[in-house]
Amino acid sequence: MGPFGLAESRRDANLPETNLCTCLNEWRDNLMAAASLKSTNIQREYRAATYRHFQDHGEPADGADDFQSPTQPERYLELRIAPAIRFYSLRIPKYTRASLLLKMSVLLLGVAASVLARYEHLSLVTVTTAAATAFTSWAEFSDAQRKVERYSSAVVALKKLLSWWRALGDVQKASKDSIETLVRSAEEIISHERTSWMSVAGRQPAKDEEATDAESGANKRSNSRRMRVVPSDGEPASG
Question: pLDDT per residue over 112-148, tens digit each?
């Protein structure tokens, strides 16, 4: 699909391999440049168990995915979309329970601190309050609620894509445009879920910067108004 597909006007059998080679080399250059890995041992020889996608040796079990061979659309649904839906679905209840547990812990610690304060156990109140603060900080760090939202959105989007594909006729499923839409849409959904945590982390500094700019602008306007004083002769003086 995309740059790795064969163009109708150019039936070059080596074109997908050439484009893949170009992408891999660009990725290697960006990796070494962005992460400053030239001074690390990333290029050392790793154990065979490190390579789990059969890059250099070995073969998968019968019917398993080798992560590199070309496949048909129905096989793609089985090897890519179905595992993704299963992956997200299994994590939704996990993070839902974690979010609920953290909220209940903070609530119980708050009640315990109030009871201890009533009976003037100040040292225990301090410990309980510190524990509640720690749980609150961990809840913000783990961001379990937003993970549930992202996983749920990904599952719904993939199921809608599956419904669209199953509603097509046999002739439409054999169309290159339909197959490319299926693959591109699925990969965009999965990639968006994987990278959305970066956008969430980037939005908060942006909001803080906007708030700082707004506050700075408000302070400047306030200072400007204070500089417009009225002298003793009653005529306004511009600052």
Answer: 999 998 888 888 999 999 999 999 999 888 888 889 9
| Degrees, nearest 5: CA angle 35-39-40 | 80
Could you give the CA distance from residue 157 to residue 176 in angstroms, rounded to a whole number? 22
pTM of the model: 0.68
Four-point Cα dihedral 181, 186, 188, 194, nearest 10: -170
Whether the Cβ atoms of residue 155 and residue 92 lie closer than 8 Å to each other: yes
Q: What is the pLDDT of residue 57?
A: 77
Token digits of residue 197: 């945590």
A 10 A CB-CB count for 1 gives 14
Q: What is the 3 state secondary structure string of 33-88? A: HHCCCCCCCCCCCCCHHHCCCCCCCCCCCCCCCCCCCCCCHHHHHHHHHHHHHHHH
Token reading at 192: 């968006």
DSSP state of 229: B
Give the other-Cβ count within 10 Å of 203's Cβ.
Answer: 10
Per-residue pLDDT band for 9 (boundaries 50, 70, 90) equals low
Contact call for residues 148 and 124 (beta carbons, < 8 A): no
Mark 92-120 as b/e (b = at least 16 C-beta within 10 Å).
Answer: beebbebbeebeebbeebeebbeebeeee
- Residues with Cβ within 8 Å of residue 192, at least 6 apart in sequence: 154
pLDDT tens digits, residue range 163-209?
999 999 999 999 988 999 999 999 999 999 888 766 555 555 444 55
